[in-house]
Structures are given as C-alpha cells and as structure tokens.
Amino acid sequence: MSSPAPVRPRPEHLPGDLLAAYLPGSFFHRSPRGTLLADGVHTVVPGGTGCPGDAAAATLAAAREAGHPDPVVVGAIGFAPDAPRSLLVPALVRRAAPATTPEPPVRVPEPPGGAWSVRHEPAPQVYADGVRRALELIDAGGLEKVVLARALELTSQDPVSVPDLLTRLVLADPGAYAFAADVTAAGDPAPRTLVGASPELLVSREGDTVVANPLAGSRPRSGDAAENEARIAELRASAKDRAEHAMVADQVAGVLRRFCTEVDAPDGPDVIGTPTMWHLSSRITGRLADPSVSALHLAHALHPTPAVCGVPVPAARDAIRAIEPADRRYYSGMTGWVDADGDGEWVLAIRGAEVCERTVRLFAGAGVVAGSDPEAEVAETRAKFRTLLRAIAVEAVA
C-alpha cells in the first residue's frame, strides 16, 4: 500500500545562506519564487528521447515510495532532441523563501585575475555571414525566424571557481533566474557545471497556476539614462521587434491553451531590463486543467520556443544545424526543478556558460527575421555575452 504523501517542508534558510553553501556538484536555482539548493544523489532519472516529464514523474513516485522525505527532480536538459540530459533526485534539498527583508551582506568574490585566451566559434564576421544565409532562407519561403548563436571559449591560467562566479552573477542581478547544475560528461577532465543568470522563465507551476514569461526583441543597455530611455522607446515602437515578439508570445499562449482551461495573455508586450539588455516581455498565465501535467511536462511541450529556435521549429532546426558551427549542448535548453506534486519552475539556459576546470564556454544568440541587419545581430550577441564576461572581468573580446 502506498505511504501517504509527506508534508512539504517549509523554507528554513535565507537565500544568502544557500548561495554561500553552494559547492560544485550541487544544484542551485534562485528566482523571485525562492531559492533551492540540492546535494547528493538519491536516484538518477533515466535518459532517452521521450518526454522527460514522464520519466521524472515515475522516478519521483518511486523515491516517495522508498521513503524519501522531499523528492524533487533537478537538473538541466540540452537544446536539441538528442542533446544530453542531466536529471536526478538529490539526497538533500534545502529551500529559502523569497527575500522580503534585507539579507546579511554577501561577500563579493574578486574576479579571477591573469590573462585569458579566447577562441571565437565562429568569428563575428563569419557569424554575420551566417545571418545573411538565414535571410536568404527566409526570403526563399518556409522559414519565418531562426535564432542563430555563436560561442566564445575562454581559457584561464588557473581553475575557475564556480561558487565565486555564481555569487557574482547573483549579486549583479538579484532578480534573475540564477542557476548552477552539474552536467559532467564522460571524458571531461574535471567536473563540468552549467552556470548562469537567465532573464527568461520558460514555465512555472504552483498548484493549478501556470506562468510563462517569453522574451523576444532586444536592445543593449547603456550606461546613460537618457540613452536608455531612447532605446526603450525605440524598442516599444519597432514593428520588426514587436512582430518577432508576437511570434514567441502567440506560440507560448497556444501551447498553454492545450493544457489550461483559461489563458490570460497581454494585448502587447512590456519592456523589462537586465544589467546588460532591454527585452520585450509578455507574462502569460493559465489555469491548469489536469493536475497530472507537471511543470516539466509543460516545459517539454513549450521547448523550444521561437525565442531560442525559430518558426516553424523543424525548418529553424535545419537552419541551425546547417549554419551554426558549434554544438549548443545545454545552451538554450532548460534548467530547473519539479517536485512529486508536479509543481516546479524551468527557465531557459541562456546568459550562461559551461565551466570545466580552466575553461568557460559561453553562447549568445539573436533572432533573425525578414529585415534583420547582420551587423546589428552581431552587436546583439556581443551585448548578451556581457553578463558572463563581466562576471569573470573580461572585456572587449566579443
């Protein structure tokens, strides 16, 4: 006979305490909803190409049956259908509620010193040529939008401290979805960690309430207040950016309508900011119809959104495979958590990097639509790199 479902533990920690307690190999997720830190391995979720929500649900049920007091699946899933997955039920989960009062000050770690070697995949002008190829495909018909990415691989003289990097990312943008997940693969010379500060919520579920917050249409942030006001106004008025955003928001709302009895989507986007970018943003909410549909089921149904892939998805995937020279792996995939009740939160794995010993490998992408300017897309990726480059004190290499 099944044992009764345990009462979910209340958060007992401060967000800063969990940030300070993070060590490589742990899983860390911080958002406006709260902070989760997970350690150890109770059960590994089986891999495969099917819906990860089904595998996670079965693994969580087995863990609860085995007496786990707080089973949660945590981890990351790569961009492509055949990309790697790193999902597990940790042995220990600690939580912190959203910060409502000032936290004790957290020490800001010094960024790593010394010189870095930098490798572009591809070089900026080769990336611009790829944008031109994508525009030719769009002009030919059958493809409305494709998100093209490029990578930077930076190598330091010394091993990179992931806890210090994560702390700097959190303190630079406390409102971001900060994450760190172990994605070590066979053959890696040292542990590999996916770490970043994403601005984009793919989907969250709490009870029957579902929230998604797609972003599309961007401008770099300036250090000048008047220039920022001008860029925000330009972004709001841009027919190209608003059309690109509508592609994403309409697709997200359409997917949620398959699972929800009601969906509330705004008539037009708002503008939100990060320390490096301005984005058109739509907060879309829904009321879940079937409680067996978990946050991870929803995330799998939504991914990839046009914000990281394109429209239509099959043609955009083909263009990405043909044009991008670097394997995205976890970039523009998703990272997050889901519990045994189906609640959870998944964010797009953007504004992040894979860190392995002395190497930091980061990606940035831009949406290409009819009317896109190749040099402007290079500039957009350059601005998006700044989130990670600032955190490791590397400037002007993108």
Automatic annotation (TrEMBL):
Catalytic activity: chorismate = isochorismate
Chorismate-utilising enzyme C-terminal domain ranges (all copies): 125-384
Entry keyword annotation includes Isomerase: yes
Residue spans of biased composition, Pro residues class: 101-112
Keyword Isomerase appears in the UniProt entry: yes
Gene3D superfamilies reported in the protein's UniProt record: Anthranilate synthase
Pfam hit, one: Chorismate_bind
Enzyme Commission designation: 5.4.4.2
Disordered: region residues: 98-117
Molecular function terms from GO: isochorismate synthase activity
Record keywords, A-Z: Isomerase
SUPFAM superfamilies (alphabetical): ADC synthase
Family indicated by similarity: Belongs to the isochorismate synthase family.
Name listed for the protein in its UniProt record: isochorismate synthase
